User: Fold this.
Amino acid sequence: MYESLATQGREQVHSGLAGIDSSKLKKLRSNHLKECFNLIDEMRHKLEFVARIKGISFIDDAASRSALSTWYALETIEGQIAWITNGVPYTPQRAKDLKRLRTLVENKVKLIVCLGDSQLHLAVFGDLVHDIRSVSSMGEAVTKAFYSNIDNLKVLFSPAMENGVPYDEQGEQFKHEVNEL
Assistant:
């Protein structure tokens, strides 16, 4: 059952869920289906809306630890994006992975804030995004994005790669810092 939901693609699952009356969901007799819908509700740190402050939306996508997952997040979000990501040292493989995001970054991302080293992002996106910053903490990252003076901004925390810190811990840090604004 889980596999059939997964192979439909996320967009199809979301469309299907939107069309189902919640009262009908409560009457489901199939325990397998009930479990699937419960799992969807429990997806934390995956395109999770955190807050809207002074017209700026903050979205926690800490569970996206690959370029492909971040691609989906960037594709999904409408408007201009300040992207908070993990900054890790440059390697040719990491650069190759991130290059898959170039078209989306060019069209949507106005600011990249790297938690740590920004050399990889400068190498891959420096010709597309003129504002790529390196910061040392999540608080600094959220503050830089919040005060960036970009209209209709969405602040997306989507790491795109592993940095040794558990995703749920980073996601909770992001939410905490947003709520401190």
